[in-house]
Structures are given as structure tokens and as C-alpha cells.
Amino acid sequence: MKIDDIRRSYVKDKLDIDKLNIDPFTQFELWLKDAIAAELPDPTAMCVATVDEHGQPSQRLVLLKDVNSDGFVFYTNLGSRKARELAGNPKVCLHFPWHPLERQVIVYGTATELPVSHVMKYFLSRPKESQLAAWASEQSRPVSTRQALMQKFAEIKHKFEHGEVPVPSFWGGFQIKPHAIEFWQGGEHRLHDRFMYWLQGDGSWQIERLCP
Predict the structure, then answer these.
(1) pLDDT bucket at 93, cuts 50 / 70 / 90
(2) Number of neighbours of residue 36 by Cβ within 10 angstroms
(3) What ranges do the domains of the chain cover?
(4) Residue 6, pLDDT score
């Protein structure tokens, strides 16, 4: 198979400035609703890119759990690689790959840790098995075998068999406050439509079209 021959045309839609909302969060929510309505797999999945102290980028997919005018929210183990890297460098990039709709959204921003009250509210809303998994997994740390991980899960499950599962002290969340957001719509002949929202000093957003 020659992968350099794999290509397709992008003809589903066009994007022009008069079709964009002046507020990028409103525009994002409109596109997210389209992704959900299209029944895409994991429409809230986003790639989170961080950078370590050596300048090495790393990426992983996580689920968006909230979005509002303050930013984009996700939750994680605070001992995970992404959390450790964000502690050293809070600059982050999010990418929403809605390929079946021939759309992408890229968010450039800064991460801040969420208050304990927000973390607790979300954690207690999770299915019990997910709460137990948070306790059982030392995220991003080496583990000898899957059997060892499942054994730890079984021990945690037995420990919290009765009653609520408490919020781990190492569990937290981040809010990404953007300074720029790009909306990308695939176009015919690779002439894609790209628009970047830039946050201004007065809190408004400037929109400009980018070459594909």
C-alpha cells in the first residue's frame, strides 16, 4: 500500500465570515451540536498537547467536560504526565478532529487548575466504576502487567464496596482559557476555509481568514 496515494476531496460545506458567530464559544457550541447530531464517535474527544521541561511535546485524547465563556474543561489524575507538564508550562493546545464533517477546531490557551468544589462535583457524578478506576490507576506510571492493574482495581472495589467513593486527593481538573481559536472547514482542491479568532485586550475577538 502506498500511503502517499491516500487522499479524498473535501466538499461537504463552505465557511465564510458572514456564517461565523462573533463569539468563538458560541461558534464552537454550534459545531459541537452538529457533531453530536451527526452521531460522530466521541464528539467531545479532543487532543491535548503539552510540552515538558525539555521542550518535548506530548499529546493524548481526553474528553471535554464543559465549555463556557471562561474556557474548556477536562479532568485528570494530577500525577499524570499532562498534569505534571501543565504544572511546569501551562501553555496548551487542544484539537477537535471532526473528520466526517470535514471540520477541525484548534484552541490555543493557558491552563489553570480548577477549584476543589468543581472537581468534587464532577467526580461524584461519574459512574462508580470510573471513580474506582481513578483510585486504582497511578496514571502515566509504569505497571508490571494488566493483571496487576486489575488486582489493584479489585482491591479498591472491595475497599469501597459500601457507601460513596471519596474524591482522591490526586484527582483534579483544568480549565483552558484561550487566546486564539481556529475553525477549519475542508474545501475543494485543498482550498480549505480557515478562520482564526484572536482575543483582544478589551475582551473582544478579532476574526481573520487564513490561507489554507
Answers:
(1) very high
(2) 11
(3) 6-120+171-209
(4) 87
